């Protein structure tokens, strides 16, 4: 199994990072994909510690839409910061998480769009996949991926909570769809229906740790070992054994991120 999106460089794991890694390995994880905020020195330092503990770890670097306002005066500077950090991070395999979030008012939507577009263009130039965060911004997300990506940028819609329209739009661009712990929640029946229709060769699994802890661990801090619950849920939806789902989603991760 692979946790294709987690935040193990977050301060939430500073006190027990080694134990978290050991639990992930014991649970059968081959590796994790760690998301880093571009320009965040503390996260970069913890990521280096993590790589020493688990050399198979790979990372993605990007400017999250919540932080887009920091680049309001010059959206292209966001891409420059990402480019520079990618160059100094051998374990980096993607740009992200990037995207649009209209649910929260941390950054004005026009600024979010400009920063997102600049990073998608960078991904196109560098031939790297993108890890996309989208919330209540379906049409604009697909439009920017289409226009700035030019049909050349591949990636994943992480922690997917959208509808079938968004899923079909992403699949049409060659993207993958990633399930997080939300798919296990009792009230997520509609989301499970959407995931039932996602082709097996386009599925990824993640935890988004330390957030969105799956059933039956609700109320606890999330961690990569819990991705098995997401795998189990997807396996039931597609009518295949969990081991087969783990194998297929691992193959998909390798196909997209070339770790």
What's the topology here?
Elements: E1 2-6, H1 17-26, E2 31-37, H2 41-53, E3 58-62, H3 75-87, E4 92-101, H4 109-126, E5 130-135, H5 138-149, E6 155-157, H6 164-172, E7 176-179, H7 189-196, E8 203-205, H8 227-238, H9 242-257
Parallel strand pairs: 1-2, 2-3, 3-4, 4-5, 5-6, 6-7, 7-8
Helix pairs in contact: 3-4, 4-5, 8-9
**What helical percentage do the residues reach?**
40-55%
The end-to-end span amounts to 14 Å
Second-tier CATH architecture: Alpha-Beta Barrel
With helices defined by DSSP (H or I, 4 residues minimum), what is the helix count? 9
Radius of gyration: 17 Å
CATH class: Alpha Beta
Work out the number of β strands: 8
SSE string: EHEHEHEHEHEHEHEHH
| Uncertain segments | none
Describe the global form: globular
Strand order of the largest sheet: 1-2-3-4-5-6-7-8
Biggest sheet character: 8 strands, parallel
How much of the residues is beta strand, in percent? 15-25%
Characteristics:
alpha/beta, TIM Barrel, eight-stranded parallel beta sheet, 9 helices, globular
Tell me what the structure shows.
This protein is of the alpha/beta class. It has one domain: TIM Barrel (Alpha-Beta Barrel). It is built from nine helices and eight strands. It has helices at 17-26, 41-53, 75-87, 109-126, 138-149, 164-172, 189-196, 227-238, 242-257, and strands at 2-6, 31-37, 58-62, 92-101, 130-135, 155-157, 176-179, 203-205. An eight-stranded parallel β-sheet has the order 1-2-3-4-5-6-7-8.
């Amino acid at each position: 199994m692979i946790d294709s999106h987690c935040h193990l460089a977050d301060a939430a794991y500073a006190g027990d990072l080694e134990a978290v890694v050991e639990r992930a390995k014991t649970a059968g994880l081959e590796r994790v994909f760690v998301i880093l905020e571009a320009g965040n020195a503390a996260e970069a330092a913890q990521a280096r510690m993590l790589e020493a503990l688990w050399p198979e770890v790979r990372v993605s670097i990007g400017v999250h839409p919540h932080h887009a306002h920091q680049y309001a005066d010059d959206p292209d500077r966001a891409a420059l910061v990402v480019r520079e950090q990618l160059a100094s991070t051998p374990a980096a395999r993607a740009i992200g998480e990037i995207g649009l979030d209209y649910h929260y008012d941390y950054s004005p939507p026009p600024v979010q769009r400009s920063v997102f577009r600049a990073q998608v263009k960078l991904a196109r130039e560098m031939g790297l996949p993108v890890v996309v965060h989208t919330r209540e911004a379906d049409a604009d997300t697909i439009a920017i991926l289409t226009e700035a990506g030019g049909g050349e940028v591949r990636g994943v819609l992480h922690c997917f909570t959208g509808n079938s329209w968004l899923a079909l739009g992403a699949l049409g661009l060659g993207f993958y769809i990633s399930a997080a712990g939300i798919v296990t929640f009792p009230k997520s029946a509609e989301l499970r229906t959407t995931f039932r229709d996602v082709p097996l060769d386009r599925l990824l699994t993640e935890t988004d740790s330390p957030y969105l802890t799956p059933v039956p661990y609700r109320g606890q801090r999330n961690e990569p070992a819990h991705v098995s619950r997401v795998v189990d849920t997807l396996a039931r939806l597609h009518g295949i054994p969990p081991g087969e789902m783990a194998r297929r989603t691992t193959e998909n991760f390798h196909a997209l991120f070339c770790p």
